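Figure-free illustration: sequence to structure, shown twice.
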Amino acid sequence: MLIDHTTPLGTALTVTGSSDRGPRTHNADAYASHRRTFVLADGVGDSVAAAEAAHAAAQAAALLTDPVAAVFAARAALQVHTGDAVIVVAVARIEGGFDIAWAGDARAYASDGEDLVQLTTDHTVAEYFRARGVVPERRLEHVVTNTVRHATPQNIGRATTRAPRLVLASDGVYGPLGHSGIEAIMAGHASADRLVRAALHAGGTDNATALVISR
């Protein structure tokens, strides 16, 4: 089932969120927003436990306005669950821009309406080898080296941007669309729904979830 909403925050900040289970048995992706905090979580696996973990992580993280603390809140929330998830958290700064933290391969992109910049670095075996000058096997793109359960102050990713628009995406969106596909959509009438629908139309075989936050 496709879920889509648009929520204005004050007069300057708007978010659209959309999620579709695609051809999977369960939708193990989840997103949440509260005040200035926006979260996307992707459960590890295609199971009820993965879906429950993603939803619990997203809901817990959305309550905090420090992105690193939000990841730890998500980790605490999973103590009563058996599943695990990857996560990306973005907090809109009052003075402009966003602070981001992540664990795993959920991504954040900054957009100025023309160019798209990937802010996160995937915590995957493939990225580990790439950083060391080794071309990885394609299957290693999906083997994560960090998750919510394994998040520590040392391995949580952090980034900041002053861009006016942010995209949070699960691998079910950025995998089928690629960087150029997301950039093209964000240069037009951008919305999370358009990203999700385009990813599935492009042959996506996973849950597809996105958040688009604009000032």
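We now fold a second protein in the same way, so the two outputs can be compared directly.
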Amino acid sequence: MSRTAALHQAASLLLSHPDEDVHQRLDLVRDALGALPGQESALLLRFCAAVAGVPQLELSARYVATFDRSRRRTLHLTYYTDGDTRRRGEALVRWRRLYREHGWQAPADELPDHLPLALEFAARSPGPGRAALQEHRAALELLRMALTDHRSPYADVLEAVCLTLPGPSPADRAAALHLVRSGPPTETVGLLPFPALRPQAAAAEENRR
């Protein structure tokens, strides 16, 4: 497994709901990344250290409060581009088709744009998976900023994910919203059959500030 694939797999584990085996997952990530150089692995290990002593039930409650009770911090990537519109259903179909074309099927009980699933796919199929993440770079950056504003340790995980993608992160929220309006960098446009990021989604996001 390549360094970037290992980082994506680790981030997928850390962003999954902390169920009964969460501390075993933390141990797996620490073992996998302990000898891996780079700022990304340091950020993921810092997250592991921040939550290592927290009981599982408390971690679960924090996870729900962080990701499930705020639209600004949702882990569903197409929400940032399509919001609660009919177009989002079409985007989800494209995600499922992408997985299927590369021999992978997402669990039936989770939407295919769920970030932990997208990261696991990127670890298994680095080329199309990384391109899909880059297509949704604006969503990842907005989530990273929202988690930073929330003072959540999960901000470290999102920062690590963004660092695995080409190009610098937007300097601020206004720049991230511009990325939502304008779409991904030109060198990645057309790599995947995802729609351009829509101005309506940016406007909706600004209204929720």
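Summary for the second example: Residues 81 and 208 are 14 Å apart (CA to CA).
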